[in-house]
Design goal:
Two copies of one chain form a homodimer. The first copy, chain A, is α+β, with helices and mostly antiparallel strands and about 180 residues long. The first copy, chain A, has three helices and ten strands. In chain A, the strands form three sheets. Chain A has a four-stranded mixed beta sheet, sandwiched between helices.
Chain lengths: ~180, ~180
Amino acid sequence: MTGSREVFAGKVINVRVDDIALSGGRTATREVVEYPGAVVVIALSGAGEVTLVRQWRHAIGQLLLEFPAGGLEPGEDPSVSAQRELREEAGLEAASWTRLGHFFSSPGFANEILHVFLAEDLTTVEADPDEDEDLQVVRYRLSDLYEHPEKLEDAKSLAALLLLRAARPGVDTGR
Amino acid sequence: MTGSREVFAGKVINVRVDDIALSGGRTATREVVEYPGAVVVIALSGAGEVTLVRQWRHAIGQLLLEFPAGGLEPGEDPSVSAQRELREEAGLEAASWTRLGHFFSSPGFANEILHVFLAEDLTTVEADPDEDEDLQVVRYRLSDLYEHPEKLEDAKSLAALLLLRAARPGVDTGR
């Protein structure tokens, strides 16, 4: 990298433009959206149901059905964020946690990394969403989502389902 | 929306900050990254292999293995973009195209929508990547990726695999 300048510092994202050297002596710029990373939680009940949240997403101008998710606080371990988001958004605590993996949401222009967790042995607690979040908590049969993934127009939720199935073969059919 | 201002106009992304009204009379701001939308292509051979590209992703500072993908040109139909990206990045043309669905990559802060295509009946042509792309084309058995999705740290590629499996039950095991 031969140069870098911040072009926007926001509440949620920062944006910078980097000058980079390519092979063959060429140069180019890269616009990078900085985001602190996030977690996604699949909360699976013993009856084969998962908890999702439906919320208005201003950036895309529509309601979206997603697994509970949220950004990491500075320096926070993802497993702590996962417990917090599940409690705040879905009103659930889990006695059993499994880390399913990670992925990048938009590697072409953003540095956001998402850590995926499976939460089981669930207990209901009081939900406490962020004050500017309007969330509707809904439950689906997990097998229904594998059969009809078009219900989820959200890359992180779809990708999380794929990681879950690889970790738990047969989970998609309720076996 | 009660107000909106552009804070960055780049070559690839634009960023704006919107003022929005929440329920209960509260207000908040939303930072939105504008991106023109993109396509993802799973090119599947008759032998059960898929074509991926490995490339350095500056935003995340590492090499990433992804299905061929790319942004829509202004006004371009996604199916046209898909054919172009497959030809340019992977050096392939396909006689059979199936639309598998769509999803949003980062609905919390970006408006990017990704359209997913399955390309079959493949013919090799000359690749012609964008001049500032350094791509390595690699082939994997599709069943290997379903078994080891951790090889793909890319949300769009993982989500695309989930859509493919719902559209083509059994494709993940080579049946």
